[in-house]
Amino acid sequence: MNPKDFRSTEAGRVYRTATGYWAFVPNPLPPQIVYDGQLALLLSQADAALSELSGLGRYLPNPDLLIAPYLKREAIASSRIEGTQADLSDLLLDEIEPKRTPPGSDVFEVRNYVAAMHRGISLLEQHPLAGRLVRDLHEVLMRNVRGQERTPGEFRRSQNWIGPPGSTLSNATYVPPPHDLEMHECLKHWERFMNLRDTIPELIQCALIHEHFEAIHPFLDGNGRIGRLLITLFLIERGRLSTPLLYLSSYIEQHKSDYYRLLQRIRTDGDWHAWIGFFLTAVRDTARSAIAQSSSILAVRDRFRLKLKNQHRPLTLLDDLFINPYTNVSRAAERLGVTAPTATKTIGQLEAAGMLAESTGRDWGRVWLARPILDVVDSSPSFAPNHY
User: Fold this and answer.
1) Under CATH, which number does the domain 11-292 receive?
2) In the chain, pLDDT over 90 holds for what percent of residues?
3) 124 vs 242: CA distance, rounded Å
4) Which of 23, 126, 255, 299 is the most exposed place for a label (fewest CB within 10 A)?
């Protein structure tokens, strides 16, 4: 890490450790923020879009119809930022036929992300957003997957760094605070700031919390995914989201180079303004996209409910297909609480309505796919360039 790249001390200080490498120690939050007209407008737009999305989740008759597909897409996108290759169909089929997923598959990392989000939401009912909760999320995230040997559920006890493959402490792009004293001091200040109330706009606070966590980089692996989980958990904890419907990973994935560049510019130049502008734009555009896609999902549901009219079992199975568009006889029987022949008959009724089609071509171990649902759930939003 070249100390000459760090031109400002507004965000923190660079110092040479006793062992000779350079590291960055971030200053306690919050920084001095200038709310110019552009930032004020973005904050207003992001607030409005987030409130509309939260209201949608609050008044849905069955919010799981939207929460389940959004969370799975977020898990895919957040894990893909870290280099995984699994797609949504891989994850969905793993739920139906877990034995088909080979050992070492990226699906296990994605599955853990989903589990960590559910774990975080349940913990918010009992615990504040703090180190204990973060460590618990990390333990779930890293369980039995790549990086599991890197102390899951524990803050690091050795130095890490960020840089291209093959980089070392001496030529890394960024070296976070050392693990002994500085890292724990930074975490203490970060935790205190995260639990401040009524002192700063919550979306600004969320942007600062996320950046600071990435600057501290308190785990040997999984920091990016935990940092993105914390965005949603913070907004739920503050009552800004009624249900976990806002996920920024698809946006970050599409603007990955800008995301990393702006985080680094805070450390090198103290440029908080550009990062906050990027974050607010991401919240605004992602919330608007989620609202539009929710309307598309509900339109598909309404269209097929009309086709199925008063057929009780097909209507019940229809809703389950929004949680996972793949099904087989055993899953359908379990969801409906019926025998296999009755489940087979129900699947046939959904086939006749044009919702399900057999996807394996096999005579045994057959799996059906609700293509109309998968098409709308798996449609990737296309976000405009972010000009920050």
Assistant:
1) 1.10.3290.10
2) 77
3) 13
4) 126
The pLDDT tens digits for 322-338 are: 999 999 999 999 999 99
Helical packing angle, 202-216 and 256-269, nearest 10°: 80
Q: How far, in Å, CA of 176 to CA of 224, rounded?
A: 14
Instruction: Please give the pLDDT value at position 209.
Output: 98
Dihedral through CA 271, CA 277, CA 280, CA 284, nearest 10?
-160
The whole-angstrom separation of Cα 3 and Cα 9 is: 11
Burial class of residue 24 (count of CB atoms within 10 Å of its CB; 0-12, 13-18, 19+): buried
273 and 383 Cβ atoms separated by less than 8 Å: no
SS3 content of the chain, % helix, strand, coil (to 5): 60, 5, 40
- Of 232 and 97, the one with more pLDDT: 232
For residue 132, what are its two tokens? 């204990």
Q: What single string gives the DSSP state of each residue in 322-368?
A: HH-SEE-HHHHHHHHT--HHHHHHHHHHHHHTTS-EE-S--SSS--E
Architecture per CATH, 309-377:
Orthogonal Bundle (1.10)
Average pLDDT of span 235-246: 92
What's the pLDDT score for residue 231? 96
pLDDT of residue 46: 98
Q: Where are the domains of the chain?
A: 11-292, 309-377
Q: What is the pLDDT of residue 147?
A: 67
- CB proximity list for 349: less than 8 A, separation 6 or greater: 308, 311, 313, 314
What single-letter amino acid sits at 13?
R
User: Which residue has 């969370």 as its token pair?
Assistant: 71
- Reference 206, options 137, 253, 275; nearest CA is 275
